[in-house]
Amino acid sequence: MAGENVEVIAVGSDHAGYRLKGMLAGELSEMGYRVLDMGTGSEESCDYPDFAVKVAEAVREGEADRGVLVCGTGAGMAMVANKVPGVRAAACNERYSAEFTRLHNDVNVLTMGARMIESEEALGILKVFLDTPFEGDREEGARHLGRLEKVSNVERKYSK
């Protein structure tokens, strides 16, 4: 963020992910991140696209450096977030995917399934997502930049 050196993480969930989102937001704050909670604010039934788009737009617009979304499986949130240009979201319900989507794909929005994983594992996945750098910034990972450019080309082609 301009003028700040504290990374901002936008978080969001639907009703299924509400409790896990709250726990993760608290952990993020304790780790020194600034948290933007984009909702939902309760376990009352709601529609996941409403919150996925809020987090994705915050990342796209630079209000947040990265995003974290939680629903039942993580899949619905990822589908919606990936509709927002410039967002690269991945559903990661284990650590390996979180690591390699950061290393190779420069994922900027992590999605998880509250009905798929326990909170301790979700925290571990979150930490991997936060701590893993994009490999494309190093010489040995330059091949990933070309692949991401191809992804951007697809995005541009279909957003006309």
Properties at a glance:
160 residues; 5-stranded parallel beta sheet; 5 strands; globular
Concise synopsis of the structure shown:
The protein has helices at residues 18-30, 48-60, 75-81, 95-105, 119-131, 143-158; strands spanning 8-13, 34-37, 66-71, 89-91, 109-113. By secondary structure, the protein is of the alpha/beta class.
The total strand number stands at 5
Question: CATH first level: which class?
Answer: Alpha Beta
| Poorly predicted spans | none
> Mean pLDDT across all residues, rounded?
95
- Per CATH, the superfamily is Sugar-phosphate isomerase, RpiB/LacA/LacB
Percent of sequence in beta strands: 15-25%
Q: Find the structural class using helix and strand composition.
A: alpha/beta
Shape: globular
Helix count equals 6
The total domain count is 1
User: What strand order characterises the main sheet?
Assistant: 2-1-3-5-4
Radius of gyration, Cα only, in angstroms? 15 Å
* CATH architecture verdict: 3-Layer(aba) Sandwich
Topology-level CATH name:
Ribose 5-phosphate Isomerase B, Chain: A
**Spatial separation of the terminal alpha carbons:** 29 Å
Main β-sheet, in a few words? 5 strands, parallel
Estimate the helix proportion, in percent. 40-55%
